[in-house]
Amino acid sequence: MTGNVVDRSGMHQYVHLIRAPHDPERRSREERRSLDPESSTSWRRMGTEEQWRDRIRAHLADGEPRTFNRIAVELADMTADVATSGPADPALWSLVRDGEVEHTTEAPIYFRRRAA
Fold first, then answer.
1. What predicted TM-score, i.e. pTM, was given to this entire model?
2. What one-character DSSP code corresponds to residue 113?
3. CA-to-CA distance for 8 and 57, rounded, in angstroms?
4. What DSSP element (H or E) covers 44?
5. What's the structural domain count of the chain?
6. Which of 6, 19, 33, 34 has the highest local Cβ count within 10 Å?
7. CA distances from 87 to 51, 84, 106, 110, 112 (A)
8. Of 81, 63, 113, 64, whose CA–CA distance to 72 is shortest?
9. Which residue range forms the structural domain that includes residue 98?
10. Which residues pair with 102 in a beta bridge?
11. What is the per-residue pLDDT across 34-82, written as a single tens digit (0 to 9) for each?
């Protein structure tokens, strides 16, 4: 599906957060602490919706279907339940609304770039 966003009211708003069995795990707390503090990670949690749109669009350019959780882990080392509270979630759904990204309709929900 793409274009008109599916019903995301009530409990439906959380269905796309369901993880797939093969989704990657985020780094351990120890690994995250050892990261270079100079490498700004503020965009990962904040950033703008447009920055997230660009990053998600580029990340999905390989055509590989991914869950929102996998997208969030691979781009920002955070899980979907955390990413949903920032600009990443609306960015993803705006790409769907604009017809650039399509998704499956049964959980776990997979997203991919729409074929040209």
1. 0.84
2. E
3. 21
4. helix 42-45
5. 1
6. 19
7. 9, 7, 24, 19, 19
8. 81
9. 67-116
10. 112
11. 565 544 454 455 689 999 999 999 999 999 999 999 999 999 888 999 8
